[in-house]
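Lab meeting, item 3. Inverse folding demo.
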């Protein structure tokens, strides 16, 4: 997906850094949790490098192609991932748990040897507030749709996962937070496919992200027969 129109001076830090990159079938949002089971040799090399140096790696969505073997078409916006837990297994595979940190913009893809790499810079949100009334109304709307999905057996998560989401939504409804972090937290709880999640990641500011969330919930309402 192309980047939204934006003044280059506002596109983020002008300091480009080489980053190890992990293209995946779905984007990672800031604050979200990413479990990984790593078996491909180039990503084993990435895991060794990042764990040895305590470095984050970038995650971008694959727009076309496969996660395995290369030859994919990758998005130009991604998210840095911090490694929270990791273990190298006896057969060389890795299991890892990472968390989304901050959004990045890809300036140039480098060679994939020994693993995918890119020059990237931070891309912080533009400043934009989300009124408290809009925050509460959107959380209430998502709660209502989740309750309706549960009634008809279409929730799509386990009881434990559903309880965890309900707890997070309760916190978002009750606790004030900086608009960017709050909007990403809510975005991670919205039922959305990879391309909708990428649209949430690419929204230039929290207010625009709320507009995307509203559009996604419109689609959920139609699927549930609520409209």
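The presenter then showed the designed sequence:
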């Amino acid at each position: 997906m192309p980047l939204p129109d934006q003044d280059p001076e506002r596109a983020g830090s002008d300091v480009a850094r080489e980053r190890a990159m992990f293209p995946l079938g779905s984007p990672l949002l800031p604050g979200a949790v990413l479990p990984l089971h790593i078996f491909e040799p180039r990503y084993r090399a990435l895991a060794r490098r990042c764990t040895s140096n305590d470095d984050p790696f970038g995650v971008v969505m694959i727009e076309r192609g496969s996660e395995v073997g290369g030859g994919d078409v990758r998005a130009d916006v991604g998210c840095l991932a911090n490694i929270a837990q990791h273990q190298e297994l006896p057969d060389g595979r890795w299991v890892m748990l990472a968390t989304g940190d901050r959004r990045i913009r890809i300036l140039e893809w480098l060679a994939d040897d020994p693993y995918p790499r890119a020059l990237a810079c931070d891309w912080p949100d533009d400043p934009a507030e989300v009124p408290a009334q809009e925050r509460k109304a959107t959380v209430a709307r998502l709660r209502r749709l989740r309750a309706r999905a549960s009634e008809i057996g279409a929730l799509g998560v386990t009881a434990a996962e559903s309880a965890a989401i309900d707890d997070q939504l309760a916190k978002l409804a009750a606790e004030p937070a900086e608009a960017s972090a709050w909007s990403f937290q809510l975005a991670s709880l919205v039922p959305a496919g990879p391309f909708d999640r990428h649209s949430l990641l690419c929204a230039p500011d929290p207010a625009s992200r709320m507009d995307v969330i509203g559009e996604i919930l419109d689609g959920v309402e139609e699927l549930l027969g609520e409209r």
